[in-house]
Structure formats: C-alpha cells, structure tokens
Amino acid sequence: PGSHLPSAGEKGLALFVPEIDPHRCNGCDACLRVCGHAALSCEHGSTDAYVIAADACTGCSLCSDICDRNAISVHLDAVVSYARIPLAVRRCKVCGIRFHKPDTGSIGDTLCQICSRVDHKRNLYQVL
Fold this sequence. Notes:
Number of helices: 3
Radius of gyration: 17 Å
Structural class: alpha+beta
Number of strands: 6
Strand content: 25-35%
Strand order of the largest sheet: 2-3-5-6
Largest sheet: 4 strands, antiparallel
C-alpha cells in the first residue's frame, strides 16, 4: 500500500510504520526472516544496521507477532521516527559465534542469545 503514496523517506508520514525498540530487541532476526515485503532488513558493511522501509510495509504485523520480546510494533498513519538502527557486533565468549544486537550505547551482553538462556555449568556436570 505504501508504494502508491509519496515516499515517506526519513522523518516522513507513512501508512504503516514498523518500529523496533532497541532496548528490548535481542538481535535474533526472526522479524527479518518473516517479513515477506522487505520492510525490515539488515544492512552489512562498515557498520551493520537494521533498515526499516516504511513504504514497503503492508501492516500485516507478522513481525510483531513473531517477536518473543515484544520489541516490534506497527503503527498506522505515523511519522517515520528512524529508518536505521545501528547494530553492535560481538563475539560470544562461551561458544565463539559472531552475533549482533541493537547498539544502545552500553557495553551489554557478551553472550549470544542462545548461551544467555542456557546454563552451561549444569550441562558440564551432566557430561561428567
């Protein structure tokens, strides 16, 4: 629907505007995988960032339904507050995998989303 209207661009009015709360988001990218209209995407380069294309959003709210942290909401007839959310890229200190989370300015977690949920000490005693 947004493609038939004038481009919202940066700080413009759009029919549907997805909004990601960087303080709640854990960087799992489930919303990116479920969005069939490319309204949400991840840009890799010198600085990684989530990119929100409000013009492409159809208001289906699948992104907000799949988010287990309630970090995404879709607003009707709203102003695009931001189109890019910078990501902090880190390496998990337990498993070594590279992961990203929205950059909120604080150092934050050094564990990926899986290792932060698993008690590795408990699993170690099970092996022994």
